[in-house]
Amino acid sequence: MPSSFLRPGPWLLASLLCITLPLSGCGGGGGSAATVSNSSNNPEANAGNDTNDSAGDDGESAQGPAALNLSWGEPYQREAEYPNTVDLPQQLITMRDGIRLAATVTLPADENGNAIDGQFPVIATFTGYNQALGAIGAADPALVKRGYAYIIVDLRGTGAAEGSWQAFSQIDQDDIGELLNYIKTQPWSNGSIGMNGASYMGITGLLAGAREDPAVKAIFAIVPMGDAYRDIVFTGGQINAGFIPLWVTLVTGLGIIPTPAGLDNNEPGYYLNTTLQHLQGALTEFQVPVVAGALIGDENKYDTEFWRIRSPLEQIDKITAPTFVVGGLNDIFQRGEPLIYEGLKDHTTAKLLIGPWEHLDGSSGAGLPADGVPALSTIRLAWFDQYLKGMDSGAGDYPPVTQYYTGEERYVTAADWPHPEAKAETFFLHGQPGAPLFGSISPSAPVTNKQTSLLQTPVNGLCSASASQWTAGVLGMILPPCTAQDNVANLLEAVYTGEPQEEDMVINGPITGQIWASTTALDTNVTVRVSVVGENGIARPLTHGIQMASMSAFDASKSRFMNGKLIQPWHPFTEASQKTITPLQPFRADVEVFPTSARIKAGERLRISVGTSDLPHGLSPIPDLLTSLLGAMTIYSGPAMPSRVNLPLVPASAL
Fold first, then answer.
1. Largest CA distance in the chain
2. pTM score, two decimals?
3. I want to staple 356 with a disulfide (CB 3.0 to 4.6 A). Which of 85, 404, 432, 641 is the partner?
């Protein structure tokens, strides 16, 4: 690795500018449940707090019809209608309370650069990243040249807008409603609006759709958040220690860079005034209070209204505009992106595309076109042409779901998510005599009692694919060898490895680790990693999950079951649901392991590793951290306490 990568410099600035991350203190939780599958007559339904559980929870046969053989067809294309584009002077849009938001409008132009006089469908991007810089979420000239107006707006307290940052709060959402009304009445607008953007801008696009304004006729949401509490901010009840400082620094920093706003309106003091407003808001209203509160474990360490109001999944039933959702297997919103699709598909046109991406690559759709899947720009043009211009672009006929399969190393289409032919199967963890940190995996339930003990260390995971994922790829750029293996993280974990596969195994969907354990402390974290081990012994990471033991109670009515097996627990994360962990008393932690799609080839081995930390993915608030320090966790494997994982498996022939 070049030594320049170890020094702050342009690469770091570029990385921060590209981290289009949403809310580090953002939200959405209480009602943001996974789609429930076969929760009635379910042996798991009352198991969330049990301390005596048997191995037998087999259920129904595989659900749903076989997947359709769907094709993307020929890539859509059409010639530009206009030769140029032109930016109007940056303008200020006054909100109901007098606060002004900064906006730039880009219009089609003739060969001399003069704006075309006419009304156009409008593509809108509402951002927190200072649209005047043009670094993140800039207007797409290819769309404008094909007959669209484009508007980018800095939301309250960000970029060149007045006020203090609200981070998807109700105030922000009311501002979005006013912006939609503003756009509809402009002389360059024909009253039809399409929302476009990645990450922050994908989230605001979904929130715009939830305003139920019929003018919003299409949404193209790239790597958006669904449920911020569970997706990112407090995954498993843990603070995301990698994402929060990067994102808060990015938004705050971009809000104090000088911009043209105010100068075009003869307000030379505008920049100084807005900068002071931004800094005051950061110190007293949002950034510092929220981050400090998370660290000391204030009331918002639970899934409160503060988080729920900020979650698109809480309002998903209000979105009726056709919506295209782009996600990533290693994205920071890996969990929520398919849930957004699920929440939309039954009441509007919805499509889901998941690539092999972390957050930065997912924002651009890196590697496309591939395997018949067009570039994101091609898909987006077809989407807006279909639903804003009424053209027959074929976008409505795109496959409902397209996913990249690790191990298969290609994109595969399907009729739904998870795959309609998926069936959950249970793999039990077996301890090995004489090898306390190593065990095996088998579909057979254990018949003898084994146990494995681990020290509870809060720092494991820094050299792992997880560390790269939960810093949106930044740590992966600094320590690239860490992103390709789980072997280093496994050194402080209990490792359970299966026999070489006799035939290919295909995983598609979320996974649950049901881990029986006890601790010598008053609490502990339980982590579950899923990896593939090749002949060279390298454990290639697939996915992982983390869960605080005291917050592991789940609501069966909001959880996902597949043929009788729990594959996606929904934890309330409320003060009332918090359990008391008694030292040395066994408990079962139902760990939500985020969804993946992968093929484990014949000869390769499945690995499940269980540990007590995954930094920076999760770090306990200080009071909870103190209750788990200087402890040891014991993992049980036996007839009465069968630690196991439930995997959604698809016949290899279905791909």
1. 82
2. 0.90
3. 404
